[in-house]
Each structure stands twice: as structure tokens, then as C-alpha cells.
């Protein structure tokens, strides 16, 4: 039978032995039941290794924090960094102005500087100042420079011209020269180390 006892007509001794065996088996199982009742659940991954849930939770939390930090950064960049700086400057200027007294006198340097920086329509001196600044900027004009990928080194550290297309048309002499210099330096350093090895 499923319970483990013999089926059919059995003697009293066999029946008693079977019942004792069942009780002993139940006592053994009862102890295991008590032990397993308060045991912690063990979670395993697909390969059968134990999972550390606290560590996984901590990693997920750190990942979520890093993602939220990155989202905040992208949101900040989306608004525009220059606009945010300008807004901060406007707030600081407004706070500075609020701290000043309401009455402004002729010797107020901030007011004087603000009025001088304003450009007024029909100001005859404004055109003269603009022309002078434009002339100074033209005089300071620099020659165009090459701004592309880093050019190969040469002996004289001369930068290529602004019209260079980035193609190295040399015969390789410069690279061979730098390789010989590096090799010579390495041999000298190795010889020095070998000579002071016994000291």
C-alpha cells in the first residue's frame, strides 16, 4: 500500500511492528519538519548557485541611483547650460539690486557703470566707438591655422599649413629617424642598467 503497510490478512505481531515502524518514521520526520519550518528560503539561479538577494537589491538600488543621476544630468543639459547660467546670473543681480537702497545718488558707481554700458539710439559717439573696436579687431586678426587630426611629428616641430589635407606624402625619413633615436636611447639605458647591476 501507499502508506507502507502490508495489504490483506496480517497477524497482530506484523501489524504492531508496522505501526511502531510508522511512529518511529513520523518522529524522525517531525524533527525535520520543525527544523525546516523556521529555515530561511534559499534562492538559486539557473546554474544552481545561491543568490545573495541583499547584494542584488543593493546593486539594483545603486544602478537606479546612477540612472536617475544621469537622467538629471541630461535634463540639465536639455534646458541649456548657457541659459541656466544666465538665469542664475539674473537671480544674483536681482538679489544684489534688492540689497541696495531705493534712493540712488550721483556717486553710485554701479548705476554709473550700468548707464555707461547702455547703448542709446542716436548716440553720435556710439558709432565712433564701434568703428574703433572693429578696426582693433581687424588689426588683431590671426593667420589661419590647421585644425584637423594630429599631424605626424617632424624634427623641427613645425605645424602644417591651414590648407593641408591630412595625407602624409613623406618618404618615411622622419619616422625612421625617431625610431633610431628611441632605439639608441633604449640601448644606452639598458647598457647603464647592466653596468650598475653589481652595485
Automatic annotation (TrEMBL):
The signal peptide stretch is: none
Pfam families xref list: Bud13 (PF09736)
Q: Which GO terms describe its molecular function?
A: RNA binding
Region of interest (Disordered), ranges: 20-39, 62-87, 117-154
Entry-linked InterPro entries: Bud13, CWC26_splicing_factor
Q: Which GO terms describe its cellular component?
A: RES complex; U2-type spliceosomal complex
Ranges of compositional bias, category Basic and acidic residues: 62-74, 136-145
Q: Which domain of life is it from?
A: Eukaryota
The family note in this entry says: Belongs to the CWC26 family.
Protein name per UniProt? BUD13 homolog
- Native organism is Burhinus bistriatus
Question: Gene symbol?
Answer: Bud13
Amino acid at each position: 500500500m501507499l502508506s507502507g503497510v502490508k495489504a490483506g490478512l496480517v497477524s497482530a505481531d506484523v501489524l504492531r511492528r508496522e505501526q511502531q515502524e510508522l511512529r518511529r518514521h513520523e518522529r524522525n520526520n517531525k524533527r525535520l519538519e520543525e527544523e525546516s519550518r523556521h529555515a530561511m528560503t534559499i534562492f538559486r539561479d539557473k546554474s544552481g548557485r545561491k543568490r545573495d538577494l541583499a547584494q542584488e537589491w543593493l546593486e539594483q538600488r545603486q544602478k537606479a541611483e546612477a540612472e536617475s543621476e544621469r537622467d538629471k544630468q541630461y535634463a540639465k543639459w536639455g534646458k541649456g547650460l548657457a541659459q541656466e547660467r544666465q538665469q542664475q546670473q539674473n537671480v544674483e543681480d536681482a538679489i544684489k539690486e534688492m540689497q541696495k537702497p531705493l534712493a540712488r545718488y550721483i556717486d553710485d558707481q554701479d548705476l554709473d557703470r550700468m548707464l555707461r554700458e547702455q547703448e542709446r539710439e542716436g548716440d553720435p559717439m556710439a558709432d565712433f566707438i564701434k568703428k574703433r573696436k572693429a578696426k582693433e579687431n581687424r588689426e588683431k586678426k590671426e593667420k589661419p591655422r590647421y585644425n584637423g587630426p594630429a599631424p605626424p611629428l617632424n624634427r623641427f616641430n613645425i605645424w602644417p599649413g591651414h590648407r593641408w589635407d591630412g595625407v602624409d606624402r613623406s618618404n618615411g625619413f622622419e619616422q625612421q629617424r625617431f625610431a633610431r633615436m628611441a632605439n639608441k636611447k633604449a640601448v644606452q639605458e639598458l647598457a647603464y642598467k647592466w653596468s650598475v647591476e653589481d652595485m
